[in-house]
C-alpha cells in the first residue's frame, strides 16, 4: 500500500506517540497491550482503544497511567460493559472513557426499530422470524 509501512507490534509502540486500536478480540490478541508494550512508547504517549476492551490489560494500563509511563488514554470500550461503578479506570488520571456507541447512528437505530416492528408483526401472525433453535 502506498505510504503505509507495516511493522511489528513492538516497533509500532516504540516509535509512535499515539496508538489507536481498532481490532476485534480473539484468543491470540487478548490483553496484547500490556505494561511491557506501553513502557516502550516515546514521551508523550497516548493509547486510544475503540476496538474491544479485552485487547488491553487494564491493570497494566492503570499502573502506566498512575506511574506516568504514558501520558493518557482514550477508551470507548472496557473489558466489562457496562463497567461496574468501582472500575479502577473510571478514576484513573488522564483517562477519558466514553460509551461504546458506534452502532448508534440514526440509520442503525432506524433499522433496529424496523426489525422490532417486523418481529412483533410476525409474532402476532404466528410466524417464525429470527428464531434461534
In short:
With 133 residues, the chain is α/β, with parallel strands linked by helices. The protein is built from four helices and four strands. A four-stranded parallel sheet has the order 1-2-3-4, with no helix packed on it.
Structural account:
This protein has 133 residues and is an alpha/beta fold. It has 2 domains: 9-100, NAD(P)-binding Rossmann-like Domain (Rossmann fold, 3-Layer(aba) Sandwich); 103-133, no CATH class. Helices cover 29% and strands 11% of the residues. It contains 4 helices and 4 strands, in the order αβαβαββα. The chain has helices spanning 9-15, 35-38, 58-66, 106-124, and strands at residues 18-21, 46-49, 72-75, 95-97. Strands 1-2-3-4 form a 4-stranded parallel beta sheet, with no helix packed on it. The model has no long low-confidence stretch (mean pLDDT 92).
